[in-house]
Amino acid sequence: MPMQKKVFMTSLAGLVILFLTGCIWLAPVAISSAQKVQAMSPTPPKSGVQNPPLTAPYSVNGNQIIDRYGHPYLFHGISLDGLEYDCQGPADLDRQHLAYLGAGRNTSTETYWEANTVRLPLSEGFWLNGSKRAQCTARHYQTVVKRVVAILTALRFNVILDLHWVDAGGQSTEGGGPWPMPDVDSLIFWTQLASLYKHAPNVLFEAYNEPHPLSWSCWAANCSKLTDTVSSNDCQCKKTLSYPGIGLSTIVRAIRATGANNLVLIAGMNWGFDLSQLEHYPFETTNLIYDTHPYPYADKQASSWDTAFGQFSERYALISAENGQYDCGSNYMDQLLTYLDARHISWIGWAWVPGGNQACTYPRLVKDARGTPASAMGWSIYRHLHSLSY
């Protein structure tokens, strides 16, 4: 999501380091076949209501996502905020708390949301280098990510691995920030992730969260120099940095070079929102889903949706992998979900991060880790997920 509404969340990560120590430094290494098996080993589901069985592998045919049985499929779910700014990982990433995102029997203290997909925002800096400030190694972060993916897979979720923050060529450390485009480290990150999960067809790859370079040519291809000012997690302040940008077509080629044929998400310009020039910059590969991130800013209102992305829903498979509302209301999201559903566009709501009654300043879906919906938007998405049949 746009950084101006998110930067304060990074301060939460600092609280964790007072309690967690003992990690060992690990330089980035290739992922072994033994790790692949460990990453995807499911545990038997508990008795009771469960998510429907996964219908992966998926493929793209025209404007449709097709499941293993040849049926059209839509991803509907929730973004699990935290792993992009917290190397140790937020609390409540255990099986019971993750289960609340899916099917289950509600109680007076537990609420299940009926999502079929969970999106995990990640940091390439943590994956490759860990965090000195949090005394967290790359190995520890990788272990956390792999454990969460394994739990979600055992719970029968689809999982979107989202490259959310980059490090601007090593200049923005401690997780990095939302720089305009991927960098050279992103190629290492995706080579390792794609190699690890290329045999996990329920895992999708979101090439980069919210691109916002100055030109479409830079969006698609490499840029010799990108300069931008954004909030960086190392100083929790704004930095102005320049670095060579890596285009999304290069990221896709790196993923495919591993042999991975997983679905890949490609977000548009203007912080992931704008796909209007899509046909001028084709990607030479299959199994792509184009991604839009609507938020209620002046240039992202309903009057712009047709031009920005809706016009392509009859030609390309589309998803809104991030969206939300900041004002305790739900009018924007109610209109958006109706629009997306009418065009058979998949969607993922932002964001599952417990926050009490703070949903008026940040688009939180839940009040607590047990799934209690927060604000009008939280209740709206909760009800909408329950209205869908899988």
Number of helices: 12
CATH superfamily: Glycosidases
Oligomer: single chain
Overall form: globular
Radius of gyration: 19 Å
Overall pLDDT score:
89
**Number of strand elements:** 12
Keywords: Glycosidase, Hydrolase
GO molecular function: hydrolase activity, hydrolyzing O-glycosyl compounds
Domain Glycoside hydrolase family: 113-354
Pfam families: Cellulase (PF00150)
What does this structure look like?
With 390 residues, this protein is an alpha/beta fold. Helices cover 27% and strands 17% of the residues. The protein has a single domain (3-387), classed as TIM Barrel (Alpha-Beta Barrel). An eight-stranded parallel barrel has the order 3-4-5-6-9-10-11-12. Strands 1-2 form a two-stranded antiparallel sheet. Helix 11 (331-342) links the parallel strand 11 and strand 12. Helix 6 (184-197) packs parallel to helix 8 and helix 11 runs parallel beside helix 12. The chain is globular and about 55 Å long. Mean pLDDT is 89; it is low at 7-47. Belongs to the glycosyl hydrolase 5 (cellulase A) family. Keywords: Glycosidase, Hydrolase. Pfam families: Cellulase.
